[in-house]
Amino acid sequence: MAEKYRLPLTSLSFARSVYERPVTEHDQPELLPQVMANPLSRVMLISARGAALRGESLMFTPGPEYQSSGTEQFVYLGRDQQHPYVLAIVDESVLENVADASWITLREAFSTLSEAQAELFVEAQAITNWRRNEVFCPRCGSELRASTSGWVQRCVANNHELFPRTDPAIIAAIIDSEDRLLLGANSTFKSKMYSVLAGFVEAGESLESAVRREIFEESGVHVGDVAYLGSQPWPLPRSLMLGFTGEALSTKLIPDGTEILDLRWFTREELGAELRAGSLQIPRGVSISHALIRNWYGEPLPEAPNK
């Protein structure tokens, strides 16, 4: 595998945070109330329909002005150089009488929001997914209550602490001896969408082994040398995508027929021509899948507009 493919992805979205996250090793019961009382604080809203949007920006409310029936729904997300940011997990009905406001999903936000706001949304969506799904103590089934500015849930019966869960998943650009890239059509994609292959890391498995296993299971391709390139949070619902490049030791393609419906090896000329013609699409925007494809392609991808 050429050394140029081993270089880290330097332009990967969310690789360097613009926000300083709160310290969550120790509970500070006074921290969240202090942040909410700060006139500079900004509260963003998330419901089952996504984040509150006004125009092409997240909708924020000053902390002291936000009225709520309780404090369990708040999470202190962190701060930038100007403002502390707080998440409020709410019912979608809160926007019914708010002029010019709407809900936006995280996938939609990647092509709408600035990267800084998209990063804040990623963090907020990840913690929201966990808070919604972790509602009872796994040890005894008792109620959970939030602590540590919303980043910990504590059992009311046995004081057992629960922390946000992240599922590691590998995603890999597999390249053969002819410098072709392997792309597949996932059963969840729209018909013309192709991407690099990905899968979850299993218990007791190294990341490198996960790359080789997942690629073989989904494509029938044996993978030799692999190199780590970078990572990206992907809270859909709670993944951390770990990006790799890998050397293909075989080229016969056998899609699994369940998750992967079609597989193809692409030269740069073939991929560029199909993207320009609009006969094929790839993941766009901030995704690590796009970054891995672009890294192999060597220059901005000539994508046709979505139809």
UniProtKB/TrEMBL annotation:
Which Pfam families has this protein been placed in?
NUDIX (PF00293), NUDIX-like (PF09296), Zn_ribbon_NUD (PF09297)
Report the transmembrane regions from the record. none
Per the record, the domain of life is Bacteria
Residue ranges the record marks as coiled coil: none
Q: What cofactor does its activity depend on?
A: Zn(2+); Mg(2+)
EC number assigned by the record:
3.6.1.22
State the UniProt keywords alphabetically: Hydrolase, Magnesium, Metal-binding, NAD
Q: The Nudix hydrolase domain covers which part of the protein? A: 164-288
Q: What class of enzyme is it?
A: hydrolase
- Reactions performed catalytically: a 5'-end NAD(+)-phospho-ribonucleoside in mRNA + H2O = a 5'-end phospho-adenosine-phospho-ribonucleoside in mRNA + beta-nicotinamide D-ribonucleotide + 2 H(+)
State the CDD domains in the record: NUDIX_NADH_pyrophosphatase_Nudt13
Q: Which NCBIfam families match?
A: PRK00241.1
Question: What family does the entry list?
Answer: Belongs to the Nudix hydrolase family. NudC subfamily.
Q: By what name is this protein known? A: NAD(+) diphosphatase
Which species is the source of this protein?
Glutamicibacter ardleyensis
